[in-house]
Target: DNA ligase
Amino acid sequence: MLVRSLVRKALIPHSLPIMSKQQTLGSFFSSARASASAPVAKKQKIEITTPELTPDPKTDSESEKDKEVVSESPNKPIFAVDDAKQLLSKETKESTHVPPISNSKPIPYSALADVFEKLEQESARLKNLAIASEFFQEILQSDRPEGLIQVTYLMINRLGPDYEPGLELGLGETLLLKAIAEGTGRAASQIKADYHRVGDIGLVAQQSRSRQPTMFKPKPLTVPVVFENLTQIARMTGNSSQARKIGIINKMLTACENQEAKFLMRSLEGKLRINFGEKSVLVALAKAFVENEASKRNKKGTAEALVQAEEKIKVAFSQTPNYEVIIKTALEYGIQNIVEHCTLKPGIPLKPMLAKPTKSITEILDQFQGEEFTCEYKYDGERAQLHLLEDGSIRIYSRNSEDMSERYPDLIAVVKAMKASNPNVNTLILDCECVAWDVEQKKILPFQVLSTRKRKDVQTSDIKVQVCLFAFDCLFYNGESLITQSLKERRSLLKDNLEPIEGKFQYAKGMDSSNVDEIQGFLDQSVKDACEGLMVKTLNGSESGYEPSKRSRNWLKLKKDYLEGVGDSLDLVVVGGYIGKGKRTGWYGGFLLATYNQDTGEYETACKIGTGFSEDDLKKLSETLKPTELSKPKGSFVYEKNNSNALPDVWFEPTLVFEVLTADLSLSPIYKAGAANYGKGISLRFPRFIRIRDDKGPEDATSSDQIIEFYERQANV
Ligand SMILES: Nc1ncnc2c1ncn2[C@@H]1O[C@H](COP(=O)(O)OP(=O)(O)OP(=O)(O)O)[C@@H](O)[C@H]1O
Ligand SMILES: [Mg+2]
Ligand SMILES: [Mg+2]
Model:
């Protein structure tokens, strides 16, 4: 596969510096996890209605090879060569009308707001890609091409990479409404009433601002000024921070013209609603670079170059999820060379490799016919990517690339001890599972125990639940990325160089065998040892490389509890609630759940759930979800409007993800998950709540593509 061969190529060891930590993690790049860019209805100002599904841009001429990439890889191309050609065509280019960028001045915020407006109004995917990439290209052709970094972050509604801790936008509605009232001189009650009517803080700000007479004209906002102000706001803490935040917002609001106020407020709220997700931003970047590089040679970008660049930028991003690094590297070395230069680097978490579910040992043997493989215990804890940096510092990242170092001071101490007893080790990236550990009995404890650990302000002295790290992969060792080496090689390197410490740092228990009885015995033993089942992985040859961000066929999971159902649990987004009756009066008694469609950015309903909750769960869920109630369903919700059985009593902002068990999947006329494929949606039968996935955001939930895959495997269609 092309993607895989690109990953493989990425190993070429080199000593070219990409960027110092200081440069990369520069002061104004602080983190904020994306809660943003959840796309909403198109072509509407005030009334929120459900948009029509965006037509699939794929054409009939799509090759079989493209289809395979599509079904297997999260790095799937958004378009095939034909679409790339269309995107590069003169007609598409001429219809974008993006604002020009002046050479001598910083990028005006009005230009970015203009592009946001165009994206919000336009619903065709290729058009949106063309608009964004034309704008990016304008920036690349100016004499400040690095301005693209801040523009990219503002477009995905973040202020830095995922893994930089602590800073988030997503200010509360009360603060923002207050800021609008103060900043525009309108009565707070009036602003509140408008908000309840309109349901969009951005529009309220824009309308309020347009009514306000201005005595003098303040300096227009620029992208760097907005970016720095947003960063300052995100960083502010402490008593007087609210007033200071409002102060900065007011100043910016006074300088806003036209749509600027709308997007500024939406950015602050953390919901940009431009219908242009992060995946599309990457593709638009690839296109802008391809065109820019070609134009320097007085040429036009070709469709082949565009398809290649798209794949490369995705691979590079999965290894180095940092737009500053990606953009600077593309500027320096060219877009087609970024994979070689954006290799792993301790301190930058890579997107973890994911596994495919299986339902039986025979299914595994079928999949791995003739290949050497290993079975490992599947520990039930929290994924932990451990980084040892050259300066001796240690970082631990979650499945979602969040920095968990503060949460696990005890683990940091373990790694320090490990480094001290292994003086040969200087830099390292390990993939591990962090599991609750019973120190006295020397045993693993269930996930539920781990989840009781404090998450914030953890002091070593008040840690009650001890943890042990189980390392299962070594991705980087002493200056060298290992991801293209075989698992066998990576595993020996790990075991040869690092001494385990009982109850603190151990290797995942493994067994290399292809004998059904032996595997069955090992599976049973894993469950007795408080594990979920097995992970089965190809061991040798190029197929066994580590594939960042990919849900790979080379990693299979076999979970004891799910062998009867579809092979795995699903992680679904809570989009609606049902008012509880009887014993559940006063709480929500059930919930409407949805899959996330990664291509359209929409939430497609999949089932109603009311089983598996304790009274305490329901009480807590009601407290958590109440403030996220919406007055209307979001435009990005896809649900059956004509059947009252499918409608919840209340709708929620998508924030929570439930892990859910199902007896099986069936087609249903009232649900919409994966409906693009079958006309009917795929729904869960007898869904049962297992737990809240607080390590997954709504966009990391089971995707509509995944539920289709689950259904097809079960139905064997
Ligand atoms: N030996 C192991 N090798 C790889 N992963 C392991 C191992 N032991 C435990 N794990 C954990 O198993 C996870 C994969 O299975 P799991 O079903 O728990 O995934 P998940 O987090 O629910 O994500 P998804 O369902 O999206 O795959 C890994 O992300 C890792 O956290
Ligand atoms: Mg798990
Ligand atoms: Mg799962």
